[in-house]
Specification:
Length: about 140
């Protein structure tokens, strides 16, 4: 390292393998904010109200996306309910094959549709719970 005076200001020169850097001692600028933090650029601190507002907006957006998915799930399950209830009844005479020893139309009217309704209820509860967890909107323990 070489030190010397130039025009009344002390300078320091460092000799590297291929580069030479010199800086003026005493007239050095303040270090860049990222230098003091090890290369991390600090972000300005927002007021608490703005942070709370952003958090609330993010929560509202998650709730909107959750509600869209719940409506879609409900729509598909209602479509299945409609097919089981009305389509099988409408085409009962055309469904004239034996299923578990009974005509299919009779079996659907007596028991099959009840199993499907039970499936729809269980599937909705299970899938809605999974969607609640996916969007972070699950309810706590009572």
């Amino acid at each position: 390292m070489l030190s010397g005076f130039t025009d009344g200001v002390m300078t320091e020169a460092t000799c590297g393998s291929e580069t030479q850097a010199s800086r003026v001692i005493g007239q050095r600028d303040a270090p860049a904010p990222s230098d003091a933090l090890g290369g991390v650029t600090p972000t300005p601190v927002e007021p608490f109200e703005r942070q709370a507002e952003r958090a609330m907006e993010a929560l509202r957006e998650r709730k909107r996306a959750h509600w869209r998915r719940i409506k879609r799930l409900t729509g598909w399950l209602l479509l299945l309910w409609m097919v089981v209830t009305f389509v099988t009844t409408y085409y009962a005479r055309d469904l004239a094959f034996t299923f578990f020893g009974w005509p299919f139309s009779y079996w659907m009217a007596a028991q099959g549709s009840l199993f499907v309704y039970l499936f729809i209820t269980v599937a909705y509860a299970w899938l809605a719970h999974r969607l609640d967890g996916l969007y972070g909107l699950e309810e706590g323990e009572p």
